[in-house]
Design a protein that fits this description.
CATH class of the largest domain in chain A: Alpha Beta
Distance between the termini of chain A: 47 Å
Strand order of the largest sheet of chain A: 1-11-8-7-5-6
Largest interface: A-B, 31 and 31 residues
Order of helices and strands of chain A: EHEHEHEHHHEHEHEEEEHEH
Mean pLDDT of chain A: 96
Structural class of chain A: alpha/beta
CATH architecture of the largest domain in chain A: 3-Layer(aba) Sandwich
Radius of gyration of chain A: 19 Å
Largest sheet of chain A: 6 strands, parallel
Strand content of chain A: 15-25%
Number of domains of chain A: 2
Oligomer: homodimer
CATH topology of the largest domain in chain A: Rossmann fold
Number of strands of chain A: 11
Number of helices of chain A: 10
Chain lengths: 282, 282
């Protein structure tokens, strides 16, 4: 039976480290604070916001919510982000994306100052990941993958890591994070031929294709660690699921993250750790 | 016998495209101009400078040389770069590196404005490569690899590309450029295990290890295109050579770049094309 790499203990360990750092901040009379920008009332955003609220409460991180109607003049959002950049009592800025179409998302990402870009969407934050240089923060989900590997002491150095997906939110940054930790990294995508051959040769397989329930036995080997970044909905079984057909992997591979309860449950704790780091760097 | 992918015809084709664009610039009374910064009299720098001079003369690109003694106060260099940033008659800036140790190379790279960073060393230039976004220019050598592949119509989409080396000058950017053109990319490095197995499975093998004459038959297959980015000196045979043991590859693989006369001979033409692009964007 495969080891199930649950996210919860990883998140708990991150939160404990966060709480330990809160003392330093309290000594300096700093309350770490996230400015959270939401446009509209999308269900995904609301449940992520709820998760952040719960996690941040436990640690003692403050949240300032900026909520805009879906038909708000984009300039209002841009101005509010600029104000949050300038406000020294705000340490991190998170804007829920995707934004409605009349907002210029590229502009929004560029507006957030890299020091406060706690979800690593800014060009300079991503440049830092690429260059392995401390310019900003990694996207939280990409870093959550690394946190899981670290927590469960899964060696990356010299290991073959195959990443399925090349998005700027997951695929590319997680590839660079793995490379920075000395894995031999292969990036596969929709144009890759013989993708199963590549995947099944991996020691660590990171699945971020966005295609629900699409990755089956031909992608696996029995010594493999499978990290499933996908999150989708299976209408037949009426439940959340990942990119991986969990039942077909779970008895076979060495270790696998579940969905839900895997990568997704670590992301919010990573976000918290970024807000605290940003506050400590002030 | 392998096809020898000579750099010269690639460079000539790039130069022709440059010359075609000079007319547009002449119509706007613009002389594309490179500011070239050299500290000391290193042989490598001098011969690169000579090559640039010859190539740029042919096209009609002007060069302003800024030469500093090796014991110059670094502030003088920094100030001169800032002035070149502000000078609207200068379109590209190139600083020969590595600089002597008392210069802050990170600072120098950050000083050059991305619009003028024609050798892609700035954080934002590299972020552009990573994000596949038009933020600046690619490092010339990394792009020279792609120019060779394009010129000789070597398909990248869906092909397995293996890059040996993960430096910020070659390995990482060329990996991203290949990924942006739909190759399935594996990045190998000093910690990679079974590197020959990975390399010999590649359709396109890019060698940028910096280890002269180190890549032999176990890295190859007969359908492979080998791009040798290395440049070193073989003291026994008293001649320049690459990372690849050329004699052992040349009869076996599908196609290979020679050293000298391969990638290196394309780099200067790529630099010229960047200066012209920068001038056109003004």
């Amino acid at each position: 039976m495969s080891e199930i790499l649950k996210g919860k203990p990883v998140a708990e360990a991150i939160k404990e480290r966060c709480i330990a750092k809160m003392k330093d901040l309290a000594d300096r009379s700093i309350t770490p604070t996230l400015a959270l920008f939401r446009v509209g009332e999308k269900q995904d955003d609301l449940s992520y916001e709820k998760g952040i609220g719960k996690c941040f409460d436990e640690i003692g991180i403050a949240i300032r919510r900026y909520v805009f109607d879906i038909d708000t003049d984009p300039e209002e959002l841009y101005r509010a982000i600029k104000d949050a950049n300038d406000d020294e009592n705000i340490h991190g800025i998170l804007v829920f994306r995707p934004l409605p179409k009349h907002f210029d998302e590229e502009k929004v990402k560029a507006l957030i100052s890299p020091q406060k870009d706690v979800d690593g969407c800014n060009d300079l934050s991503l440049a830092g990941i690429f260059m392995n240089k401390d310019l900003g923060f990694a996207p939280c989900t990409a870093q959550a993958v690394m946190e899981i590997l670290h927590h469960y002491r899964i060696e990356t150095s010299g290991k073959k890591a195959v990443v399925l997906g090349r998005s700027l939110v997951i695929g590319k940054p997680v590839s660079m994070l793995l490379l920075n930790e000395d894995a031999t990294v292969t990036v596969c995508h929709s144009r890759t031929k013989e993708i199963e051959t590549a995947a099944s040769g991996a020691d660590i397989l990171v699945c971020a294709t966005g295609k629900t329930n699409s990755i089956g036995p031909s992608y696996f080997n029995e010594h493999q660690t499978v990290i499933d970044v996908g999150i989708g909905f299976d209408p037949i079984r009426n439940k959340l699921c990942g990119d991986v057909i969990f039942e077909e992997a779970a008895g076979f591979v060495q270790a696998i993250t579940p969905v839900p309860g895997g990568v997704g449950s670590v992301t919010t704790a990573v976000l918290a750790s970024h807000v605290i780091e940003a506050a400590l760097k002030r």
